[in-house]
Specification:
21% strand, binds S-adenosylmethionine
C-alpha cells in the first residue's frame, strides 16, 4: 500500500492509495464524488447497489468496503473482465460483480436493487425525457437513486458558454451541453412520475477539488485522457480561471415512490 490521497473534505476516500486512484481514475476523483453522494443516501450493510457507469470500478470497490454493500459494477467502455481482475486483486470478488451493459439495455430484474448510484456518468445516457421512467424501475419502491456529475454552478442556457472556457471545451465536444445545473437536474428528474426529488445541489467550492485532482494527476504523469496531458492542462487552467463561477460538481437524489 502506498501513500493515501488525502482531502479533509472526504475522510473515507482519504484512506485510499494515491497510485491506485490515479491508475483507475476516469474523471475528477470518483471517490470524492461518491463519498459526497453517499453522505445523503440511506445505505445499509448488505444492500444490493447498482454503480451505473462505474468506469474501472474504483467507486464500486469503495462502496463495498466503506458501506458494506453488494455492488453491481456496470459499465460500457470498460470490459467486465478487466474490472473483474481489479476486483479480485482487491479481494472483493464476493461483493462486487462486474457487468458490461449499455444503459438502454440493462439486464437486471425490475426492483432488484435497494439503491442506485452513478458518478460522472448519468449525463451520458440520462438526458432523454423517458430514461428515468425505465431506469427507476430497477430500484425497489422506496429506494434511492443518487447522481453526481460535473455541472454548471448556475442555471445558464446552453448558448451562454463563457468565453474563458472556449479553448478547452472546443476539444471536449458536447461536454458543456451535458454539464447541467442542480436546478436543471431537479426539473429534469422531477418529470418522472415514479420518483420524488429529495435533493439537488452543488458541491461548495467543488472547482477547487477539480483543480487539485487535475494538478495531482498531472504531477503523477497520469493525465486524463491517456496521452493528452496538454488537454488535461487546459482543463485545469480553465477550471482555475472559472473559479466556480460556472462549473463545479452537482448531485441529485431521487426516491422511487412506494
Ligand atoms: C467519465 S467516465 C466515468 C467513470 C467512473 N464513474 C469515474 O468517475 O471514474 C463515464 C462512464 O460512463 C459510462 N457510460 C457512458 N455512456 C454509457 C452508456 N450508454 N451505457 C453505459 N455506460 C455508459 C462509460 O462506460 C464510462 O466509464
Amino acid at each position: 500500500m502506498g501513500e493515501p490521497l488525502r482531502n479533509d473534505r472526504f475522510p473515507r476516500a482519504s484512506k485510499y492509495d494515491r497510485d491506485w486512484i490515479f491508475e483507475l481514475q476516469m474523471g475528477p476523483n470518483a471517490l470524492w464524488l461518491m463519498e459526497w453522494l453517499c453522505g445523503d443516501l440511506d445505505l445499509q450493510p448488505g444492500m444490493r447497489v447498482l454503480d451505473m457507469g462505474c468506469g474501472m470500478a474504483m467507486s464500486s470497490m469503495f462502496l463495498a468496503r466503506e458501506y458494506d454493500v453488494q455492488v453491481w459494477a456496470n459499465d460500457l467502455w470498460i470490459p467486465a473482465t478487466d474490472n473483474w481482475r481489479r476486483i479480485c486483486e482487491q479481494r472483493l470478488d464476493d461483493r462486487v460483480f462486474p457487468i458490461h451493459a449499455e444503459a438502454n439495455a440493462l439486464p437486471y430484474a425490475e426492483e432488484f436493487f435497494d439503491a442506485i448510484v452513478t458518478v460522472d456518468a448519468y449525463h451520458y445516457f440520462g438526458l432523454t425525457d423517458d430514461y428515468l421512467d425505465r431506469f427507476a424501475r430497477l430500484v425497489k419502491p422506496g429506494g434511492q437513486i443518487g447522481i453526481a456529475v460535473p455541472g454548471r454552478t448556475i442555471d445558464l442556457p446552453d448558448a451562454a458558454k463563457p468565453a474563458h472556457l472556449e479553448t478547452w471545451l472546443a476539444e471536449e465536444e458536447g461536454a458543456w451541453e451535458t454539464w447541467q445545473s442542480a436546478a436543471f437536474w431537479k426539473r429534469h428528474l422531477g418529470r418522472c412520475d415514479l420518483v420524488e426529488v429529495e435533493l439537488a445541489d452543488t458541491l461548495e467550492d467543488g472547482w477547487r477539488d477539480w483543480v487539485s485532482f487535475g494538478e495531482l494527476t498531472l504531477a503523477a504523469g497520469e493525465a486524463r485522457p491517456p496521452g493528452r496531458a496538454d488537454l488535461a492542462r487546459k482543463e485545469v487552467e480553465a477550471i482555475r480561471e472559472d473559479a466556480g463561477r460556472t462549473l463545479g460538481f452537482v448531485r441529485a437524489i431521487v426516491r422511487r415512490r412506494s
